[in-house]
Structure formats: C-alpha cells, structure tokens
Amino acid sequence: MTGAVITGLGITAPNGLGKQQYWAAASAGTSGIGPVTRFDPARYPATLAGEIAGFRPEDLLPARLLPQTDRVTRLALVAAEWALADARVEPARLPEFEMGVITASTSGGFEFAQGELQQLWSRGSRYVSAYQSFAWFYAVNSGQISIRHGMKGPGGVVVSDQAGGLDALAQARRQIRKGTSLIVSGAMDATLCPWGWAALWTSGLVSAAGDPSQAYLPFDPRACGHVPGEGGAIVIMESAEHARRRGAHVYGEVAGYGATFDARPGSGREPALRKAIELALADARTTPAEVDVVFADAAGTPAQDRIEAAAITAVFGPRAVPVTAPKTMTGRLYSGAGPLDTATALLAMAEGVIPPTVNVEPGPDHPLDLVVGTARPASLTTALVVARGYGGFNAAVVLRKPREEVAA
C-alpha cells in the first residue's frame, strides 16, 4: 500500500468514549442523544443534544492544563492520547520535525469564552483569565496537541463547518505526500453551552422535537432538522512507508478526496455535492461500482436530504450502494462529524458490519438503500464518507482497506 494511511483512532462521542465503547454502541444502534444537561435548556426552543457523559478530564489530563483549556480542547487532547496509544506511537522517540498536527474546528472554545465574558460583565476585566487569549481560538486544539507531544512539523486548522473534518484529513494527506512521516489529524467540536446553543439555533436547522427518537430523521418524510452533538475523532495518519517500517497496524488508506462549494442560492446552478463525490472517486482511481458503503452527511432537513440523495443516486444509481448515517446516534458533531464517520467506516471495514441509521423510516419513493434498524453484515473494502458545511462547503473522502487484508 502506498500513500497516506491511518494507524490510530481516538474517539470521544456521545454514545461512547474510546474506540471499543463507541464501536460497540454504534454497531448495536445505541444512541447517545437525550435531554440537554450541561445547562438549563428550558428557555430555548431546542432541548435535545448528543452529550458526552462520564468524561472526567481531571482523571485523564495534567491538572495544570485544566484552567487553560475549554472542554473541546480537553476532548481533543484525550482523543489524541488515545489515538497515539492505539497506533503504538511514542512521540518522544520520533524526530520532532517529522510529526505535525492538522485539525478542524467549527466554533473553538465557546464554553470557555462564555465564562470569561460573564466574568468581564459581572466583575470586570481584572477577573478575565489570561488564557482567554487562546482558549477560545479555532487553532487551539492543534496547538495544545503539538505542545503536549513535542510535534514541530506542519501544523494548522481548517474552518469549513461540518466539511472541515474531512478537509483537515485531506490537508494532513498533502503533508504526508510532501514528506512528513506522521500527522495527528481529525477534529472535535463542543458548543453545548448557552452561547453556543443560541448560535446554533440561528441557523434554522436545529430540530425542536422533544422526543429523542423523533428529533433527527435524515432521509425520512418526518425530517425536521438535526440534533447538535459534541465530540469527534482524532486519527494518526502516516506515510505507508513509515507505518511499514514501524510494523504498525493499518486501518486503511485515505485513497481519494474531493471538495467543492455550492453556487449562490437563487443562482439556478446545480448543487456541487455530486462533483465532490466524483472528484474523490477520480482521485482514488475508483469506480462507483467498487464502493461498498456510503457514510452520508445526513443533514436532516427535507431540502438538503433531497440534494444528497440525488447526488448519491446520480453517481451510483438508485439503491445501488448501501448508505448509512451513524450520526443519528450522536447528533451532528460539526467539524468532528467527518473524522468520526471516517473512524466508523474504518472499523466497519475491519469488522464487516455496516452500522445502522437509527429511528429513520424512509419513504417508499426514496432512492437510497438506507441501512436502518439494525447493523448489516457486509464485505467492505472501499467506503465513501460525505460531509457538508453550513453555507455551501462539500467534501468527500474515499477510504480503502489495506490490500494485504483484501488479498487474504
């Protein structure tokens, strides 16, 4: 296998902390969506979220990091630690300029920023933490991971909403191709605080349903918006040669990538999602017939679902490829969604199981072969992951199982 491969997974999701716990939940159709508990949502139209329960950063991170980090950064630091351990990478043993960090972010450290704004207006500027200067920032996760592990190679952050996580993986892949041995990539988001909640609600895309089983129903006639969630996945990406020299376990190759941007609303031009999928397939030198499963963006609004279903159908044909949306168990995780779907697709290929889209009942005229209800056994060697960001961002990634496993 050549190119950029993924050798480690670190997952923090509403339905599971860590790779094993998350996969057990996702493959069983166990949802992490429920009533908001991190603040009182009674004054807001939406009251459901995909919250991560049982996360205790004080047990997982040095005490000195806690005052200077937002919840999202703590999740990212822990996920990075788990991903490195999963890849059996000890950063101290590798050249510091041959390792980099490239992540994505949609909102940055909203909860930390809200607390400091409350301090400013209630007590005065002397009570605002100096850490506010960076704890809110989009690039803080990349920076903190880099500092913690002594990684001085290529670094950066991508901001393109829910498409950003896949865009970050693509940027990591570019740096691998340019000669960097190892990149920590992926994304986290965590905006479940009153300030973040108000911002999310203004999109007009958040579901106001009060029943967790009825709130997030992509590709369903009852679709009424999405449920926000927190978390995501951090992955270890290496050059295939570097992974081979280490004797690393390879989950799969990032074989192809495509990105587009939609035309201005009202322009009369077609949405650009189909083109992003076609670009990713062409980059991977893969035909539609070779794709075994599609992990959908699954916006959860009738108009956006129709656009995605039309794009998938145009490329693959009606009901020609299994399609799934495990994010119905977590909520939409914004920049964290694409990397989590990527990790899920890699685990699905390893286990030979497509996790389900829960609670959804597609209409009889729906053109997709949606995996609903329970997981579906399947032989998987190639997967497509699709993500779209608010405002017109589109991204698609093709993942391929290690060839030696396919041959076996």
From TrEMBL:
Domain of life where this protein originates: Bacteria
CDD domains linked to this entry: CLF (cd00832)
Residues in Ketosynthase family 3 (KS3) domain copies: 1-401
A Pfam match: ketoacyl-synt
Alphabetized UniProt keyword annotations: Acyltransferase, Transferase
Keyword Acyltransferase attributed: yes
GO biological process assignments: fatty acid biosynthetic process
PROSITE patterns for this protein: KS3_2
A Gene Ontology molecular function term of the record: 3-oxoacyl-[acyl-carrier-protein] synthase activity
Protein family (similarity comment): Belongs to the thiolase-like superfamily. Beta-ketoacyl-ACP synthases family.
Protein name as it appears in the record: Act minimal PKS chain-length factor (CLF/KS beta)
